[in-house]
Each structure stands twice: as C-alpha cells, then as structure tokens.
Amino acid sequence: MVLVYLVAFRFATIFPSGWQNYLMVFYAVGILTLLSWSSLGTHVENIDPLFGGGEWVTDYIPTPEEGSNAAINLFLTLLIPAIYGVYKKRNALGSGQQP
C-alpha cells in the first residue's frame, strides 16, 4: 500500500488538470486488480532463478463470488492510498510547498 501511495504521489502531476490524474490512478489500480484476479488460485512452481520458466499449478478454481470478492477487496485496498497520494501531491503543489 505504501508503494501505491508513493507511485501515485510521484506521478500526480502528469496531467495539468487534477481529474485526469485521479482517472489515471483509477485505471492503473483497475489494471493491477485485473491482473491479480486472473491468476487467483494459481502459482508457479520449479522456477529457475536465472532463466525463469517453471510450471503454473492450479491450487483451486475460485467460484465467481470468491473472485469478485477478492477483486473488490484488492481494488479498494489499492485505490484508497493511491487517491490519497494524488490528493496530497496536488494539495502540496497548490499551497506552494515543495513535496
């Protein structure tokens, strides 16, 4: 969560208007959530540390309700610190402080 806050804080001035920064953070968190949701219940075994590889193992197949609950929880857990990071950076720039 700290990493999400710091990334959002760092990139809060990409667009000149504030709503575009919030929208960018919303989309980035959504993409991270979709990537995590797609691999729910799986992991990789026998990975070679130098060359990668390995095989994907399915631990369980989540029900649609379990997948939705996990995605909503992760989305909100990441979105709140990201929005706060953008808000703090925009607020610091608006008041003339150096972030």
Features:
single chain; 3 helices; mainly alpha; 99 residues
Compact overview of the structure:
This protein has about 100 residues and is mainly alpha-helical.
Number of helices: 3
Rg, please?
Answer: 18 Å
- Separation, N- and C-terminal Cα atoms: 19 Å
Helix content: 55-70%
Question: Which descriptor suits the 3D outline?
Answer: elongated
Round the mean pLDDT to the nearest integer and report it. Answer: 86
Note the run of SSEs as H and E.
HHEEH
* Uncertain spans: none
Physical arrangement of strands within the biggest beta sheet = 1-2
How big a fraction of the residues is strand?
5-15%
Walk me through the structure.
With 99 residues, the protein is mainly alpha-helical. The chain has one domain. It is built from three helices and two strands; from the N terminus they run ααββα. It has helices spanning 2-10, 18-38, 64-94; strands at 42-45, 55-58. It has a two-stranded antiparallel ribbon. Helix 1 packs across helix 3 (64-94) and helix 2 (18-38) runs antiparallel to helix 3 (64-94).
